[in-house]
Amino acid sequence: MKTIFAIDSYRHRTEIVDAIVVIVAIIVTVIEVAEASADLHSHLVFIILFTLRVIRLVNGVATLIITNLERKQDELKLKYKTELEKSTIMLLLHSMDEYEAKKKKDENTRPSVVAEITPVEHFNASCSLSSSSENENSSELQRRVTSTVKQMSIRNKKKNQKKALIHTRHEYEIRRMLEIRDHWVRQLEETMAKNEDSAQEILEIHASEIKYSNKKSSRRKVHPA
């Protein structure tokens, strides 16, 4: 960073020096055209020309320093680019392993579907138990049993739908992540053969997209009840 700031500072100073050189050149031209024969003005012109040459010399030295600093900056950029490529590729491989592990884990832990209890079975069982007792409230008891069985059936159905929805959502997220990974890998392989700089940009974009997908997936994750 210090090298970059130094280069910017020298460039700014060089621009100022160039502006001074142009202004001095204009003044010298005006003086030469106006009164080149007078002794006083001739000495003034000589002093200005000498100052102009000194300024140009300083400008040349500053340009040489800037060139050396730019060369060092290019070396630092190349080194940083190499390290960034290594870290990005390692991040890509690590993300691919995480996707595969998550896919295998979800396949091995598929939610079991709760067996639905049919109202007819519960009703028949209740009737067989209540037939032995001659209770005047048998009709009320049967009505309560039927209502309870219906509620249990509705709850089981909703629970199964919720588990199936969670499982489908997890499968969709995993499939989407794998599609994104395959797309970027193909594009990366094609681009690396053409342009190294574009390949580096793809690596950086893919790394940021992986981080965004992981954050989004963790926020939307639903734990089954």
Automatic annotation (TrEMBL):
This is Ion transport domain-containing protein. The chain crosses the membrane at residues 16-38, 44-69. Keywords: Membrane, Transmembrane, Transmembrane helix.
